[in-house]
Automatic annotation (TrEMBL):
Biased composition annotated in UniProt, kind: Acidic residues: 218-230, 239-250
InterPro entries in the cross-refs: TrcR
UniProt source species: Rhodovulum adriaticum
Tree of life domain: Bacteria
Region Disordered: start-end pairs: 190-250
Pfam name, any one: TrcR
Lineage, broadest ranks: Bacteria, Pseudomonadati, Pseudomonadota, Alphaproteobacteria, Rhodobacterales
Name of this chain's protein: Cytoplasmic protein
Length: 250
């Protein structure tokens, strides 16, 4: 639902000049009912001057009359032909000043643990520029030696659902390109919940020479029982030279 301009100021005017309920005013202005009550009590929006929605061509007087007559009636914003076709401006995510210093740490985390994400995806997630991302990828950032990777979700720069959506999108793009992925890369391309539920796949150590040719089922299984050495053969040792000499003397 569209909201009027200067929502809190409009709510102040409606509270002072109409008999509408707090819920009706809140629904029209896009505010919570308790917030409207706080405005009426003077705890919220103190000092805000009322903004007349009727004089500013946002609300028809008949809507106020219908709302005062029926507490369940929902006010309708006046149609403005000039606003038809307008869309919200698209651009990089706005990052508060208090969190902008944390962006390099979150960029380094995304570059390190999710290298499949493109610069455009990282830019949308943390609200940064592509040159900054490139400088951190190439480790040419002026403060790269002091930057520690930190999860952007933990820093409050993006939501976990947004990060998971970007990772899933990167997974589909990589699968469409036909690129092979290792086990570690495949775990990074799924959501956090799915990654935790996956079982670890057995791996053979590659540091031991000759282990790559080792198999659990060797040639011994193919040998027949008659080819195995007899146990008695281990005890039938040949006579030594000393035993032969003793026999001669006798």
């Amino acid at each position: 639902m569209n909201k009027p301009l200067m929502a809190k100021a409009t709510a102040v005017w409606l509270i002072d000049n109409t008999m509408l309920t707090f819920k009706q005013i809140g629904d029209f202005c896009g505010l919570h009912e308790l917030e409207v009550q706080g405005i009426a009590d003077g705890d919220v929006a103190a000092g805000v001057k009322g903004f007349d929605p009727v004089a500013n061509n946002q609300l028809d007087p008949k809507e106020i009359e219908k709302g005062e007559a029926d507490p369940l009636y929902s006010l309708r914003l006046k149609f403005n032909p000039a606003a038809v076709g307008e869309e919200k401006r698209r651009g990089p995510r706005y990052t508060p000043l208090s969190k902008r210093q944390d962006r390099p740490a979150s960029i380094l985390w995304l570059v390190k643990f999710h290298p499949e994400l493109s610069d455009g995806q990282i830019s949308k997630l943390v609200g940064t520029t592509k040159p900054t991302i490139q400088s951190i990828r190439e480790r040419t950032h002026w403060n790269i030696s002091n930057i520690q990777p930190i999860d952007p979700v933990a820093l409050g720069l993006c939501k976990q659902s947004e990060l998971d959506a970007a990772v899933q999108k990167a997974a589909k793009a990589r699968a469409a390109a036909g690129e092979l992925m290792s086990d570690d890369e495949r775990r990074k391309l799924v959501s956090t919940e799915q990654s935790l539920e996956m079982e670890a796949e057995p791996k053979m150590p590659s540091a031991i020479a000759g282990l790559e040719t080792f198999t659990l089922t060797g040639d011994d299984d193919d040998k027949k029982d008659d080819e195995l050495p007899d146990a008695d053969s281990f005890f039938n040792l040949p006579d030594s030279d000393e035993d032969e000499d003793e026999d001669d003397q006798r």
